[in-house]
């Protein structure tokens, strides 16, 4: 028996302006969403994993670049993914299943 998990998260919307890097407490600036994704890939193991894939929509990356709350929300949730995947695998294993692949899409 095989289980394929797909998680979809809606993008975070706020009522503040999306000025690029507004309120960025780290002082890091990114020229585009690709550069920001490279930074996240280096920082979070879940984006480099060979056991599962995490896909983040470029519009969410752009929003996170310009809004500190969205950035914090995104990075916090990225930090939770490895543990969540392990819990998913353990739960399915307890039922006699094996997880063959997991794709987590953030839109």
N→C terminal distance: 29 Å
Give the amount of beta strand, in percent: 15-25%
The unreliable regions are: 1-25
Strand order of the largest sheet: 1-3-2
**Main pleated-sheet profile:** 3 strands, parallel
Please state the overall shape, judged from the principal axes of the Cα atoms.
Answer: elongated
Structural class: alpha/beta
Radius of gyration: 16 Å
Summarize the entry for a quick read.
This protein has 107 residues and is α/β, with parallel strands linked by helices. The chain has helices at residues 33-43, 58-66, 68-94; strands spanning 2-9, 53-56, 98-106.
Characteristics:
107 residues, alpha/beta, 3-stranded parallel sheet, 3 helices, 20% strand, elongated, disordered N terminus
Mind explaining what this structure looks like?
This protein is α/β, with parallel strands linked by helices and 107 residues long. The chain has a 3-stranded parallel sheet. It contains 3 helices and 3 strands, in the order βαβααβ. It starts with a strand and ends with a strand.
């Amino acid at each position: 028996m095989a289980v394929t998990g797909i998680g979809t998260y809606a993008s975070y919307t706020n009522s503040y302006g999306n000025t690029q890097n507004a309120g960025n407490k780290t002082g890091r600036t990114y020229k585009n969403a690709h550069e920001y994704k490279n930074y996240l890939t280096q920082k979070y193991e879940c984006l480099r994993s060979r056991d599962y894939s995490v896909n983040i929509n470029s519009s969410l990356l752009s929003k996170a670049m310009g809004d500190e709350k969205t950035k914090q929300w995104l990075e916090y949730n990225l930090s939770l993914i490895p543990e969540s995947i392990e819990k998913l695998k353990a739960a399915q294993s307890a039922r006699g299943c094996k997880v063959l692949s997991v794709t987590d899409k953030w839109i």
